[in-house]
Amino acid sequence: MNKTTRVYLVGAGPGDSGLITVKGKRCLQRADVVLYDRLCNPALLGDVSPAAEQIYVGKNMGHHALPQEQINALLVEKAGEGKVVVRLKGGDPFVFGRGGEEIDTLAEAGIPFEVVPGVTAGFAAGAYAGIPLTHRDFTTSVTLVTGHVNTRKNAQRDIDWPALGRGHGTLVFYMGLTNIATICDELIRHGRAADTPMAVVSHASTPQQRTLIATLADAPQQVAQQGVTSPAVILVGDVVTLHERLDWFQRRLTPEATSAQPQPKASATTPQDDSARTNILIFTGNGKGKSTAAFGMALRAVGHGQRVRILQFMKNDPDVGELAALERLGVPLEQCGLGFVPKPEHPLYAAHRDAAEHGLARAEAAIFSGNHDLIILDEVCGSVARGLLDEHKVVDVLRRAPAPLTLVLTGRHAGPALIDLADTVSEIQPVKHAFEQGIPARKGVEF
């Protein structure tokens, strides 16, 4: 192990990539290996060297890319290779982030480490929703609580509900959306008034932030009716009443949300400079040639000296001609799939979904890096059609793409939201195919 070997546990902040610390950003820039979570803003990966190894270790309810024990072992393994390792964790590493377990493993293995704090989601949710967690006119205390209550065995396990019910300070529940009914019931049962104000802040500090204001009595019903989604933070206490007056972030978003809607296309008689805007093209349909058309566009862009990046969803085949050709042209092509996608009930389907979500995170990082003129998301439409990706999440990434940039999407069954957002959509339909005549796939044609 050399003198530079070190593991940095870096807090990525709650969602807004600008909330990472200066030191955290510097750690990413010098990292040889980055292990990052699902809730880390993918734009932060734009600071990572292209030569660095990036490993997705995200966790979602019901399935994990890697179990925690394997993450711990991977940190030890990579540091043991003499590398600078960054463990990038959403929010703050030591606030419900299992950072303590990770550095305990490192300490036991004798590996040097440092912890770089981050803005924890609870604090960001309060700040971005205009809800001060402490206020001299309301309360001088705040309590952070895990929302992962065990409803099947004993709802009181690990949570001191009587103490929370008796207190008057602000309560901040992390990861509690699925258990919100239990949380509200327990707080009321142990002394909190049913009309105590509650805020549920989802996707805090991002353009997708939504704040639901309710009470302990009606919050579960309101959450269900309005379709609030994770990640979400639950704030309980009288300070929630300040939201209506102090909600600066949503007011700032309002004009942006309006301008983010698809704009009317210019008429044929109205000249428009496309070089200063984001241009989205889709090749879809059941015919052959969708990816081929996109690769042809990449070739044309390279000929004009443009910077091209290609990410392939669902595909995982090293023996294809485009990989070798693009390598010679200096165009990076990253395969983000696992190959043939099984039916949703298949045990491996979740792994394919994780791979697609990882690919979307990589695509978002590329889009916001400022390092490319043309980005191709090959088979992303097919990934949406097969349920591997949420169409609205893909649309959100594309809608926020900075100009000038050209984005090319391919794949069967392009959804209506993607088609509505795009500037150009071409549908390729089959007339006849060599396969029907018993002609096998040929190098240079099919692959």
TrEMBL record:
InterPro entries: 4pyrrol_Mease, 4pyrrol_Methylase_sf, 4pyrrole_Mease_sub1, 4pyrrole_Mease_sub2, CblAdoTrfase_CobA, CobA/CysG_C, P-loop_NTPase, Siro_Cobalamin_biosynth. This is Cob(II)alamin adenosyltransferase. The keyword Transcription regulation does not apply. The lineage of its organism: Bacteria, Pseudomonadati, Thermodesulfobacteriota, Desulfuromonadia, Desulfuromonadales. It catalyses: 2 cob(II)yrinate a,c diamide + reduced [electron-transfer flavoprotein] + 2 ATP = 2 adenosylcob(III)yrinate a,c-diamide + 2 triphosphate + oxidized [electron-transfer flavoprotein] + 3 H(+); 2 cob(II)alamin + reduced [electron-transfer flavoprotein] + 2 ATP = 2 adenosylcob(III)alamin + 2 triphosphate + oxidized [electron-transfer flavoprotein] + 3 H(+). It comes from Desulfuromonas thiophila. Residues 6-219 form the Tetrapyrrole methylase domain. Residues 256-273 have a biased composition (Polar residues). It is an enzyme of class 2 (transferase). Its EC number is 2.1.1.107, 2.5.1.17. The keyword Transmembrane does not apply.
